[in-house]
Amino acid sequence: MEQRVREVMTAAPVAVDAKTTVSRVAHRMSEENIGSVLVTEGDRLCGLVTDRDLVVRVLAEDADPGETTAKSVCSKSVVSVGPQEPTGNAVDLMRTHALRRLAVVDGNECVGVVALGDLAVERDPESALGAISAASPNR
Length: 139
Description:
Blueprint: H1 5-8, E1 10-11, E2 15-17, H2 22-32, E3 36-41, E4 44-50, H3 51-59, H4 70-73, E5 80-81, H5 87-97, E6 101-106, E7 109-115, H6 116-123, H7 128-134
Protein name: CBS domain-containing protein
Domain CBS: 9-65, 74-129
InterPro entries: CBS_dom (IPR000644), CBS_dom_sf (IPR046342), Diverse_CBS-Domain (IPR051257)
């Protein structure tokens, strides 16, 4: 039987308020040793900010990290998957939308994030991506 998303996702993902500065977002990513955070307005998921977003949408644009908000640089169209769905559905969504991360949403609540690396570790741990994703961080 194929694995379900809930078995490979990162539960309790880090989220920041939409008004959080990207400077603070970067600090959270560093503190948590992660490459993305969810962006929320109240209890509504409104986007996802990745470390790449910070480089491309803030640093490369010479924006002020202390003034720029998470909402202004986050990916606005969040593609999500349910925790009970087969991991193959997550792979298909990533392929279709050219994404590396998906929000895992149960009803109206975001319960996790599943990354390409998570799927590689579970589906093909001997592959280059699986091995790299399973390795300890180099910080």
